[in-house]
Design goal:
The protein has 328 residues and is of the alpha+beta class. It has 2 domains: 3-109, Beta-grasp domain (Ubiquitin-like (UB roll)), CATH 3.10.20; 117-307, Alpha-Beta Plaits (2-Layer Sandwich), CATH 3.30.70. It contains 8 helices and 13 strands. The strands form 2 sheets. Strands 6, 7, 8, 9, 10, 11, 12 and 13 form an 8-stranded mixed β-sheet that branches. Strand 9 (217-231) and strand 10 form a beta hairpin. Helix 5 runs antiparallel to helix 6 (185-211). The longest helix is centred in the middle third of the chain and has 27 residues, at 185-211. It is elongated and about 75 Å long. The termini are far apart. 33% of the residues are buried.
Length: 328
């Protein structure tokens, strides 16, 4: 059986025919960094082959694509994709400093740790319409109270429809759908959005009774590939979503202000939702930071009937529905 002579660890590791180098090193306790989980989506598991390159398998299409993008020389290989046959190989791991080792241990040991995966998800951004004047009219402690109540209602609606809140940005939310139920990412997002509109309708009578004002929410939904993985450490560790499709969802949401709409979705959402989603209208728009025009669709709550879940009863501490005038 061939062996890997691994530096700077100075370990000799047996490797079976057809076994990726990364798998062999990890099996023998070498803390080999692999941020994407060994899917050839990153280069952190790269090794420099010092001797025995002729015994290494040729680059497969996945490795070749990344090597071309990063302009990696022939002796630099992805350990997650490279196998050995016919002789011993000496290699060096270049990503090995103390922080690399600490992060690798965290990836292996942290409960529920996601190492970084590309997933097809529905990405939802929401914010409160005209939040600044609303906040300026209330004392700071009341604002915190209102936001906590609002985020609690939004969180309940989101979790009931299998969504995951990735980030709170002031009064805004970034939510992912499809982590639990990939095939239902868009239907779950639409059902959650409907539930969020309903929750705000229940919250507004309370706000009008307490403060003489209510608010509406705006949302943008997109569907596409993003990389999700945990970042940070300890109590601050959280799931992050990275990629151009996250930016796309954010730009869609912000276009509501320009169009005077509440809920805009991308063409990818319309295609994934199928005939059950009938938009109110559509238009082609340029988006900040993006080239070209994109077709956006306005969706109104009453047009999502096929995605609705039963509306929960109002909370017992809510004031009567006629506690104040309706929004214009």
């Amino acid at each position: 059986m061939p062996v890997l002579l691994v530096l700077p660890d100075h370990q000799t590791v047996p490797i079976a025919e057809g076994q990726p180098m990364l798998q062999a090193t990890l099996q023998h306790g070498i803390p080999h960094v692999h941020a994407c989980g060994g899917q050839a989506k990153c280069s952190t598991c790269r090794v420099v082959v010092l001797q025995g390159l002729e015994y290494c398998s040729p680059r497969n299409p996945a490795e070749q694509g990344l090597a071309a993008k990063l302009r990696l020389p022939a002796e630099v290989r992805l350990a997650c994709q490279t196998t050995v046959r016919g002789g011993d190989v000496e290699l060096r791991r270049p990503v090995v400093d103390a922080l690399d080792l600490e992060l690798t241990r965290q990836e292996v040991e942290a409960p529920g740790q996601r190492l970084g995966e590309e997933k097809q998800l529905a990405i939802l951004f929401t914010d409160i319409e005209d939040y600044t004047p609303f906040a300026e009219a209330l004392p700071p402690y009341d604002i915190i109270h209102v936001l906590n109540r609002y985020f609690r209602l939004m969180g309940d609606a989101i979790s009931q429809h299998h969504g995951y809140i990735v980030d709170y940005v002031g009064d805004g939310l970034l939510v992912l759908f499809g982590l639990e139920r990939p095939a239902a990412a868009v239907p779950d997002a639409l059902a959650a959005m409907q539930a969020m509109f309903q929750a705000v309708d229940r919250l507004n009578p309370y706000l009008r009774q307490m403060y003489g004002r209510g608010f509406r929410i705006r949302a943008g939904l997109h569907y596409g590939a993003v990389v999700v993985g945990h970042i940070g450490q300890g109590a601050s560790r959280k799931l992050a979503a990275i990629g151009d499709n996250v930016n796309m969802a954010s730009r869609i949401e912000s276009t509501n202000k320009e169009l005077g709409t509440q809920f805009l979705v991308s063409e990818a959402v319309i295609e994934a939702a199928g005939p059950g989603l009938v938009p109110h209208r559509s238009c082609a728009r340029t988006l900040k930071g993006k080239s070209g025009e994109y077709q956006l669709y306005e969706v109104r709550p009453e047009q999502m009937t096929s995605f609705l879940a039963p509306e929960p009863p109002p909370p017992t501490d809510s004031p009567p529905a006629d506690a104040g005038p309706g929004l214009a």
